[in-house]
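# nightly structure sweep
# worker-07 picked up a monomer target from the shared queue
# config: single-sequence mode, recycle default, output format = structure tokens
# input follows
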Amino acid sequence: MFSRGPSDARLVLVGEQPGDREDREGEPFVGPAGRVLDDALEAAGIARDDVYLTNAVKHFRFEERPRRGGSRPVRIHKKPAVGHLRACAPWLEAELAAVAPRVVVALGATAARQVLGREIRVGDERGHVQDDGGRRVLVTVHPSSLLRLRDRSGWDEAFDAFVADLREAARAAR
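# output follows
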């Protein structure tokens, strides 16, 4: 999976791994989580064309399950293993070195682990820019976590908090 965005972007957004749609289309954040991200970027006043989008793991790890009716099996997301993170780390490091963003936004715990080199709890480190050995990093939720809240109470608050995190990252990148 290739990344997308300007080579001189001030903001780099790092997701976990491509999803099914991203894997099939060859572009990051084009599936349902990508639509949530697009809405949040717009609400935060950030043009998608101004950010560099990539993933901690460059391939879609999945498990096939049969679909009712005998049609093509469905591909269910599987969390990347530590070995996948290690194997893909050099690519992400090379991207970050080449783009040299002012702020890296880690979308979710897996991306944060890859960017920061340690396990984190998103709730403990979310929403503020931290200095990690000269790299400025903001940890927030992955937009896919918001999909699980859609049509439930708490959606508006969770979405607004995600937008606030993106605004903070954009402010720090100016």
